[in-house]
Specification:
By secondary structure, the protein is mainly α. The chain contains four helices and no strands.
């Protein structure tokens, strides 16, 4: 796997951890989830910046935000017991389709 995709994957995982910690922080009333959120987002932006050395910002951000939405939707459903209705599933499926289109058909993705 090319290094830029490893950086991007780490950035996405860190973003999902940060967003999950934000939910767990109970509006910043719990210290350790709040600290984890700040650290995870910092790590996410750091690794996203590393990916930007190799890929255009539009592609990096589209993949980072798109997959982040998909993964946090799954985490919310499994970990936080939040429901996802049919419209949400269709929307998330369209996001996945968009990321697939970028990967398969965009010359910019492999900059």
């Amino acid at each position: 796997m090319p290094v830029q995709y490893i950086y991007l994957l780490v950035a996405i995982v860190a973003e999902v951890i940060g967003t999950s910690a934000m939910q767990a922080s109970a509006q910043f009333t719990r210290l350790w989830p709040s600290v984890l959120m700040v650290l995870a987002y910092g790590g996410s932006f750091y690794f996203m910046a590393l990916a930007l050395k190799y890929m255009p910002v539009a592609i990096v951000y589209a993949i980072w935000s798109g997959l982040g939405i998909v993964f946090i939707g799954v985490v919310g459903w499994i970990w936080f017991k939040q429901s996802i209705d049919l419209a949400g599933i269709i929307g998330i499926s369209l996001i996945v389709a968009g990321v697939v289109v970028i990967q398969l058909f965009s010359n910019s993705a492999s900059h």
